[in-house]
Amino acid sequence: MSDIDDDSEIYFSVKFLGRIQVVRPGGMQILTDAVQALQDPETVMDEKMKKTKVHLFVTRTAIDILEHKTKFMLYSCSLPSVSFCAVHPTLPKILGFVAKHPAADMYHCYIFQSKKFSHLLVSLIGDTFRAYKQEESLQGDRDLVVEALRHKNKVLERENAELKRRLQANGENAGGDKNIYENESDLDQISSRSGQVRFFSEDDKTPLHSNF
């Protein structure tokens, strides 16, 4: 086992026995059948390895398998794609995990051998997976809160705009009524100053009086 400078990544030196396509995303029977298939010399597989030594990196977001000497990336499995991880029930040095193919609807079981760290590796992968899911859930909750606040802000903006529109409308109506009242007052003042209604024409020079 080795640690690197970044504490978010841990890697183990283990033997990679290979990977095999499986029919289900998990289960101990899937692991035992996959190990048995790898040990069967008649099994035809593209990814059957000869106990290749690799670095197995466990990060916060993925499990990476790198060739030991060249550091060439053999496989990289994102944590969300991992569906099962366990130590073989009768072969304690053998461990494996199942992950979904990133571009196809299929699953592969990746099988390793470690003399000392098989149980530790499985425990670490499980803890990392749970931590990832918890962080993902918290992020989802934060996104929901942000979305709710955005929606509330939009509702308040619409309510404020409607209130502003109503206030402006009420102000215009109040101004129009005031002008009407002022005009009516002017008429009253004119009427009060004179009770006479005058008709001017060439034929009628006599003022007509109206009693109010």
TrEMBL record:
Q: Which SUPFAM superfamilies match?
A: PH domain-like
Keywords per UniProt: Coiled coil
Entry protein name? PTB domain-containing engulfment adapter protein 1 isoform X2
As recorded in Swiss-Prot or TrEMBL, the protein's gene is named LOC113040917
* Coiled-coil residues: 146-173
Show which residues constitute the signal peptide: none
PID domain residues are 12-129
Q: Does the keyword Plastid apply?
A: no
Q: Which organism is it from?
A: Carassius auratus
